[in-house]
Amino acid sequence: MQSLTEKEAEDFLEKNKFDIAKRANVKDSKELEKIKIPFPWVMKLSSTKIMHKAKLGGVILNINSLEKAKESFNQLSKIEGFEEVIIQEMLSGEEIVIGIKKTPEFQHVLMFGKGGSKVEQEKDVAFRIFPLKEKDINEIMNDTKFFSNIKNTINIEELTKIIKQTQKLVENYPKISELDINPLMINDKIAKIADARLVFE
Predict the structure, then answer these.
(1) Mind listing the pLDDT tens digit for each residue in 33-63?
(2) CA–CA gap between residue 12 and residue 184 (Å, rounded)
(3) Considering only 44-53, 75-84, 104-113, 152-161, which range has the smallest mean pLDDT?
(4) Which residues are within 8 A (CB) of 52 and not within 5 positions of it... i.e. 6 or more apart?
(5) What is the CATH number of the domain that holds 124?
(6) Residue 197 Cα distances to 36, 62, 91, 138, 190, angstroms
(7) Is residue 79 part of a domain?
């Protein structure tokens, strides 16, 4: 098994034509002054040793100034296992989770549902076995409770495109064991990946 860092996973997805939130990586607080991403920022701990950074306080939102960014860097750098910090544009919209899981029974399975930090508690997700037809994509969306509340405020065409891109990944990289895109930030205009985790066999 090969687990990629968030940066590696996002770089891999970007190479495969997924739209990723603007981001930069820094290992030293002095580098913050060179970042060209407009505020507000999200700052996240990045480490090969840590999988669930949010549970450790490794994600800080709504950073609006360089002074706050330096404070946040200092805070993140004290977490055990710290390697670097990801700085990302802060996006507005709905949070969606899209995942791939390779199973012994069905091979690759798609997961779709309500994203964010409470995925495991809310469990508003649905599953389909690859390959997917157009009707499968429509069904998996409508099998979740939250989707009926957001479907008129998001770009469904863009969301459908991302699910199709996910299917293409499975075809091109059969050794993918797990993929978690969480969250995919989506509104009526854009759909961008704000965090991703990727594991190869």
Answers:
(1) 999 999 999 999 988 777 777 778 899 999 9
(2) 16
(3) 44-53
(4) none
(5) 3.30.470.20
(6) 25, 23, 19, 25, 21
(7) yes
